[in-house]
Amino acid sequence: MNSMQGVSIYARLSEASYADLWDKKQHIIIIDNDKVEAALKNTEDGNKFSATQAAEFVSHWRVVDHQPETTSGFSATLFQRIDTDPDSGLTAGDYVFANRGTEPKTASDLIMADALGIVFSGKPDNRSRTCTDTAGP
Question: What is the domain extent for residue 14?
Fold first, then answer.
C-alpha cells in the first residue's frame, strides 16, 4: 500500500468513528448497512460523508462493534473489511479499531482532556482508561 492510499483509507475510518452508531430507541449498535450509511451522512459535528462517500464506505466496511460516547467522552468503533483490495493490501476480514478524538464542545473539554490530562500531568484522563477497559486484556 502506498502511504497516501493508506492515509486516505484510515482517514475515512477515523471520520466514520464519529458517526452515532447507537440506536437510542432500541438500545443496540447500528450494524445494518442502510442505517450505517444514514448515520455517516448525519454526524452531529458537521463532518458528514457525502451520499457517494457513505455508499462507498459501507460497500467495503461493516460495523462489528461500537462503544457509544461514555461520560468521560470516549467512543470507538471496530470495523471489518468486507472485500480484498489488492492496491491497499487490505484483505477481507481485516479489522480496524478506530477511536474518536476529543470533541471540543466547550473550552474545558480541551483543557481537561489534553492540557491537564496528559501535557501537564503526564497521565491519561478517563478516556484513555475507558479505551483500555473497552479493548479488554
Answer: 3-99
